[in-house]
Design a protein that fits this description.
With about 325 residues, this protein is of the alpha/beta class. It has 2 domains: about 5-65 and about 105-319, Putative cyclase (Glucose Oxidase, domain 1); about 70-100, no CATH class. It contains 9 helices and 15 strands. Strands 1-15-13-7-9-11-12-4-14 form a 9-stranded mixed sheet, sandwiched between helices. A two-stranded antiparallel ribbon has the order 2-3. It has a two-stranded antiparallel sheet with strand order 5-6. Helix 1 (about 5-15) runs parallel beside helix 8. The longest helix has 12 residues, at about 5-15.
Length: about 325
Amino acid sequence: MKSLEEELAKARAAYRNWGRWGEDDVLGTLNFIDDEKRARAASLVRRGRSISLAQRFGEDGPQNGFRGRINPQHYMKDTGSDAWAETQGFPHGFGGCDDHVVMPLQSSTQWDGLGHIFDRKQAWNGRPCTIVDGTGDHVTGIENMASQFVSRGVLLDAGRALGENGELPDGFAITEEHLEQIISLQGPTSAVGRGDIVLLRTGQLGRCRRQGSWGDYAGGAAPGFSFTSLGWLHRTEIAAAATDTWGFEVRPYEFPGHVFSPVHQIAIPNMGLLLGEMFDLEELGEECAADGVYEFLLVAGPLPVTGAVGAPVNPIAVK
């Protein structure tokens, strides 16, 4: 592989989608999902089996404070004890509970928004990075996507197809050749095409659970998409992709020196591809392996926080 700067320049030229859906576009590759695609996705439901793909949002999560990312802090404003003591001030025996949560929007299962990453000071569709200021993303805030993440989901179980004991080792770079190998092994229900949402299971999350420790899950070494897979991500015209890892792409990176998230740098601001992280794909992986069907209806809308550049999600796969 050439130097990172050379590879970034080549990737920009090859995979940039600026202007593809007009100069005012705020959806990026989600434009590949249309009503017909959603209707076909709904027809995939055979058993009505629904599976949540969200990790829990709790204080025992994987975050370690990198760039201020902490685990969700949940606390109660009113409790049953307050109701028992009759201190809430409500009439005729009424009582209740209220709770609050404080958290970074990307502390657990989440989508990266289009304003999350810039490339050479440019955001999605060639806009200046200054569209995001101290009050949020004023153009491509994730609230624009609240109803868009409904489509055919496809699980590519790299852990089972390529690894040992259903897991890939940290640092395993998943290339285009690997992706095609997985599809071939899994069969026709895992063929990937326009408007699909691809979920890539590496098995890293399952390994953390089995070992009983998060270790370096947040920001450490991990299996993930190779920089060389960008051509596949672009050519297949998928709407979005997500993994069961903290950072989506392989870590350590495939380039020497001071490097940070080069796949993100091309995929989000240049390609307009929506990326998801920390999806829990363990139960879904077991279900798909058991019935041999790797496609399903996926409903995965982000919490529509106004101006957010990323947001939590409780993705539901329905088989």
